[in-house]
Design a protein that fits this description.
110 residues; mainly alpha; two-stranded antiparallel sheet; 6 helices; 2 strands; 48% helix; 9% strand
Length: 110
């Protein structure tokens, strides 16, 4: 995604109601692409990302994007780098769901 397109999209989304960005087709497509890369990265690097195999409902652990997907989208980061092993970690599910996207680049979407 080009930087100019991202900036225009970010401005448009910043004036839209909070829930409307989630329905944006460009963001939905980006999120789906990130998910593919994330699963591929996790599978290939499970020993590094989750050495004790904690991810899953039984353990209450989630796979987390260190830099949130929304922030990656808004800053024009490629889906493959957003889903890369270097951007993944396993954390407590409750913490993951409470964090959200609080970085400066996400404020227009919250």
């Amino acid at each position: 995604m080009a930087r100019v397109g991202t900036a225009v999209l970010a401005m448009a989304l910043s004036v839209a109601p909070a829930a409307s960005w989630a329905k944006d087709p460009a963001y939905a497509a980006y999120r789906a692409e990130v998910r593919k890369h994330t699963e591929k990265s996790y599978t290939a690097n499970k020993a590094l990302i989750d050495p004790s195999g904690e991810r899953g409902k039984a353990s209450g652990k989630d796979l987390d994007h260190i830099k949130p997907v929304k922030q990656c989208f808004l800053t024009g980061q490629s889906a493959s780098s957003c889903g890369a092993a270097s951007n993944l970690r396993v954390i407590d599910a409750g913490k993951n769901r409470s964090e959200g996207c609080r970085a400066a680049g996400c404020r227009t979407l919250n």
